[in-house]
């Protein structure tokens, strides 16, 4: 397995892998813990640059979850657009504190609103990944 960028973390087993991109540290930690407790591997990234470092490797990511607004050169929508082109099979979930209209149509397989309803989100993520 390739080295992951600083700030990224991956559990080493065969569970479905979620790349979680969230610049708010406490939100990222909470979501990562919820996903791990639900049986997923989680790679954490604080921004799109860290996420791109993972997506440009052969790490088998099944789902990208990103916030709409993030600091840096690329926001969550631009990251999702890049990922959709580079990895068409990748499931994409975009989180927003504002409105679903902040996410262009067909850019995401799922748009979730903040504050997150974790139980509903986990149910929807499982469905996207084929209940694995």
How is this fold's topology laid out?
Layout: E1 17-21, H1 25-37, E2 41-45, H2 48-55, E3 63-67, H3 76-86, E4 91-96, E5 110-113, H4 118-128
Question: What does this protein structure show overall?
Answer:
The protein is α/β, with parallel strands linked by helices. Helices cover 33% and strands 19% of the residues. It has a five-stranded parallel β-sheet, with helices on both faces. Strand 3 (63-67), helix 3 and strand 4 (91-96) form a beta-alpha-beta unit. Helix 2 packs parallel to helix 3 (76-86). The longest helix has 13 residues, at 25-37. The protein is globular.
Features:
132 residues; 5-stranded parallel sheet; 4 helices; 33% helix
- Determine the CATH topology: Rossmann fold
Kindly estimate the percentage of residues that lie in beta strands according to DSSP: 15-25%
What would CATH call the class?
Alpha Beta
CATH homology superfamily: Response regulator
- The strands making up the biggest β-sheet line up spatially as 2-1-3-4-5
Largest sheet: 5 strands, parallel
Distance between the termini: 22 Å
Number of strands: 5
Class from helix and strand fractions: alpha/beta
Low-confidence runs of at least 5 consecutive residues = none
Estimate percent helicity: 25-40%
Number of separate helices:
4
Compact overview of the structure:
This protein is an alpha/beta fold. It has a single domain (17-128), classed as Rossmann fold (3-Layer(aba) Sandwich), CATH 3.40.50.
